[in-house]
Design goal:
Elements (H helix, E strand, L loop, with lengths): L3 H73 L1
Amino acid sequence: MKTQFAVLRSKVGKALTVGATTAAALGASVAHAIDDTAITAAQTAAENSVELTSTGMIQIVAIIVGVGLVVSLLKKV
């Protein structure tokens, strides 16, 4: 038969194990949330970069076409 000290030690050991497991799970959850936030921020930045690049290319092409039209009209004069 176990003594009261052995029973108490067993219960405390189990409680510490559960507490450590809970703390580890919480730490992993926080790390995942930080990673998820960083990934979302990087994806948003990349989308903005692609959008700005596309807009810039469209503007450059529009300027080239406009200059080409003006030059062709000036050649006819």
